[in-house]
Amino acid sequence: MFPKIGERIEIQSYKHDGNIHRIWEESMVLKSQSNLLIGANDRVLVKESDGRFWRTREPAITYFTGNYWFNVICMIRTDGIYYYCNISSPFVIDEGALKYIDYDLDIKVFPDMSYVILDEDEFEQHRKQMNYPDVLSKILYKQLHTLERWVQQRKGPFSPEFVDKWYEHYLTFPN
């Protein structure tokens, strides 16, 4: 069953070998379609696979797509919007939670829309360790380049009005 607008869902990130990587306790669903889920959270509890817990520091708008191999977290900070983009499997909804596989490659985008690619060494290590098929590695790098184009073109969650629109919508829901 797909979550409804206004529902709170858990977000679960896995690794390629099926092990849990990270869990966000809850995110409010702002838009829910079979191929797109936009959510929001603020100071949400996060559990790491090693048992550590921490809380996010700022409100965030999350963008998950079923059509691409990435997701985007838009963090609203006092000095602007920062984006943390995960190269990942398309999301699925399973047992009331949003789930995806995290493939290590990340892009961090700064408020001026400059960006850096992160964790290529971690990706390479896990690619060997978990035996990613060559076709998967090709898909992931192709999606990384697609994501770079989205940033450069200010497309999707990187468009100037995206975060403002969805954050304003989030604020209309009762805590």
Automatic annotation (TrEMBL):
InterPro entries: DUF402 (IPR007295), FomD-like_sf (IPR035930), Ntdp-like (IPR050212), SA1684 (IPR016882). Pfam families: DUF402. Residues 17-155 form the DUF402 domain. Keywords: Hydrolase, Magnesium, Metal-binding. Coiled coil: none annotated. NCBIfam families: PRK13662.1. This is DUF402 domain-containing protein. It comes from Piscibacillus salipiscarius.
